[in-house]
Design goal:
The chain has 152 residues and is an all-alpha fold. The chain is globular and about 50 Å long.
Amino acid sequence: MNGTKVFIDKQHRAVYSALASTAAAVRTAAAEAGLDRIVMELVNLRVSQLNGCAYCLDLHTRQALEAGETPQRLAVLPAWRDTALFDDTERAALGLAEALTHLPDGEQRGEVFEKYQALLSPGQFSVLSWAVVTMNAFNRVSIISGHPVKPR
């Protein structure tokens, strides 16, 4: 290898475009399922925190703030379970984001999924699952490509 970064999103634009189209479909489905942009950005951020994707953390922090999220809630997001700052839907979304990013084993997986299916409508559970799958894919694209975080 010659040390040159390969930006896989630029190398195969059509493949990246398909992923971006999936993300757009997820946003539409989220709105139809009654999940607002803040919930979805919290999910994007939590997945990106778990994966250590600096580029996506920078991007989705800005997008969450633009959507009206507070700096306080963003600051405590890694410890969301230890605060009363998140409502039941947000807590279910964040828990599902963690479970789908880490994918617990067999029996534990069923228990975790049952827990969140009981707290969310089928449409919400499905679209949040798609959001996590999509965000994990974007994290991997950015990490593999070494997308830089530029000072603003």
